Amino acid sequence: MELLSGADMLIRSLQDEGIEYIYGYPGGAALHIYDALFRQDKVKHILVRHEQAAVHMADGYARATGLPGTVLVTSGPGATNTITGIATAFMDSIPLVVLCGQVASTLIGEDAFQETDMIGVSRPVVKHNLSVRHPEEIPGIIRKAYYIAATGRPGPVVVDIPKDMTTPNERYEYVFPKKVKLRSYNPAIRGHAGQIKKAVDMLMAAKRPIIYAGGGVILGKATDQLTELVRMLGYPITNTLMGIGCYPASDRQHLGWLGMHGTYESNMAMHHSDLILCVGARFDDRVTNATEKFCPGARIVHIDIDPASISKTIDADVPIVGPVDAVLKEMITLVRESKEKPDADAIAAWWKQIEEWRAFHGMRYETSPDVIKPQEVVEALCRLTNGEAFVTSDVGQHQMFAAQYYKFDRPNRWINSGGLGTMGFGLPAAMGVKLTHPDDEVLCITGEGSIQMNIQELSTCKQYNLPVKIINLNNQALGMVKQWQDMNYESRHAESYMGSLPDFIKLAEAYGHVGVRIDRKEDLEPKLKEVLAMKDDLVFVDIYVDRFEHVYPMQVARGSMKDMWLSKTERV
Amino acid sequence: MRRIISVLLENEPGALSRVVGLFSQRNYNIETLTVAPTEDETLSRLTVTTSGSDKVIEQITKQLNKLIEVVKLVDLTEGAHIERELMLVKLKATGSQRAEIKRTVDIFRGQIVDVTSSVYTVQLSGNSEKLDGFIQAIGTSGVLEVVRSGVSGIARGEKVLSL
Q: Thiamine pyrophosphate enzyme N-terminal TPP-binding domain: from which residue to which, for each copy (chain A) (predicted)?
C-alpha cells in the first residue's frame, strides 16, 4: 500500500494520466503542490508570466495534438486570471484540465486572503468543475476531470483544490482508478442507423448538395473519413473557420471557408443548395447571417456529438447524434453499397454553376506598387513554408487574412480563437505548439493590438527557448474595429487608433529576442526568408501594412448568406 | 407554453446552482422550482416550471441533459400527469369574516392549521390554478402573507422517473 500526501497524489495522478507538460504560476494556496512537483521530474512545469497565457498555452497544445492540456494556478487572482482562457477553450470545445489552488476548506466562505469561489466563477464557461473535499478523492477526481474534458463534446474542466487537501504530512492510500464510470454522463458512441440511412438517401437524391464541416471534424479526428466521403460523392465542401484543415484547401472540391468573411463561392453555394450535410459544425451566427433568411431551399442533415447543437439556431431535417468519425464511416459504407447513384447531370450542372461563382470572384485583393498588403504577407508566408506551418492567430483583420490566404491541407495546424474571439490568444498558443513540436515552423500571425495583450510571454519564450515567429501585421490601428467604423459609423474611429505604439524591435530585443522591421514592399519576401532561416531565434517581425485595407468578402449585416460586400464598392 | 420538467439530479453540493445558472445564462425563464432529496439519498428530485416555444423547451431539456450531474429528466407536460403545489396563507379573520373564510376554505378543500383571535392560517394544496382561484375568492385585501411551495409533479399511470 502506497501512502502519499494530497499534493503528491495530485502529481502522481498526472503522471499516471500520462501528462508531460503543465503550464502555470505558483502562489500560496498551490505551494504544497508546487513542492510535490519539484520533487519529481516526470511532469514538467512551464512558468508563464500571466495565468491567462498558461491556459492559452495548454489550449494551443491541445489544438495541435488533440490531447487535453493541463494548467496549474493558485487561488483567487491566479484562478480568476484563467477565466478568459477557459472561456476561449469552452467556446471552441477544447479539452483542458485547470487545477486551481483554493484557501483551506476551513477558511472557505470567510473572505480569506486570495479566496474566490472558483467553482461559481467558472461555472458558465466550463464543461464541468469539481471540488476536492478529501485528499483521498484526488486520484479519482483527476481521472474523472480528464475523462470528462476529453470525451463527448470536449471542453475545459476546473478542479478546485483547497490547501488543506494537499498538506504534506497527511498521507493516504494512493489508488489510481483504471476506469471512470459516470451514471449521468454517457456520450453517444454511434449514430442512429435509421437516421444515417435516411441521410444517405437524401445525399443520393440531392441535386445541389453541399457539405458544411466544422471544428467537430478536427476534434473528432474524422478528417480521413470526411475526405473519403466527400471524394466518393464528388460534392462540393465548405468548412467553418474552426474547421479549416478538415479537408485539404488545395483540393478542387473545396470551396474555401464560409460565413461572414468566407469565400463568395462557398456562401453562394450554401444559399442555393438543396441539401446541406453539416458535420460537426453548429450554425453559428458568424456563419448563418440572418437565420430567417438562411438557405431557403435547403434540407439539412446535421451530425454532431452534442444533441444541444442540433436545431439550436437552424432546424435540422435529419438530426444525427453521434461521433462524427463513426457516423461518417457508416455513411461511407452505405454510399458504397447504395444502388442509387448521385444524379450525374444535376451534379455536373451544380458544379458548372459553382465554377462560375468561383471565376466571378474567388479570393482576390488589389495590390499596390509600394504599400505592403496584409494578404501578400500571408501568401508569402504560405509559399515560404509550403503551407505546412502551424499558424496561430489573434483576433481581428489579421486573423481573417491569415485564414483566407494561408492554405491548410492538414488539420490541427490552424489555431485560433473562433468562438470567443480572444485577443492575446496567438502568442501563448504558439508557445504551447512550439514546445511539443520543436522541429515544426510555428507562426503567430497577429496585429499590434492583439500582441500587446499577452506580450509579457516573450519572457517565457526566452526561458524555455521557444523560437516562434511573430508576424505582426502592423496597420497602426485596431483594424477590424476601424473597418466596422468605416462601414457603419461614417468612419468615426472611436478609440480604434493607437497613437503610442512601442518600438517592437527594441521590445523584442529587450526580452532577448530578434526584431525585424519590414516596411518596404521589395523587402517583404527576402526578409521573410531570412527570418524563417533563423531556426533558433524567436523573431518578432513588425510589418507595416496598408492602413486602409478591409477584409472582404463580408456578409451584409442581417442579410442572407448570399448578401456580401466584395470590396469597398461592390455589393452583391 | 407552460411546461413542467422533472429532473433526477446527483445529490451533490453545487448541482442545484448549475441548474439555476443554466436558466439565467441561456435566458430561459423559471416560474417555480422545487428540490428535495429522494428515497435514494444519492439523488435529488427537482421540478421546474418554465414556459417557451417548443424550440426553447427542446433546448432547455437538451442543455439540462448536458449537465454532468443531471441523471435523467422528463417533460411531464408531454403526457398525462398530476401536479400539486402547497400553499400556506395567513388571512385576516375577524367577526363575520371568520365563518365566510371557513366556508371558502371548505369549498377549496383546504384546512385551517392555525388560529388566533384575528388570523387564520390556511393550508391548501392542488394545482396552481386552484391556489390562484382561492386567493381570488378570498380577495387580496384580506391576505396577510402567502407562501407557495412551487410545483411538484409526477406522471400518471405506470410511467416512472427512476434510474
A: 5-117
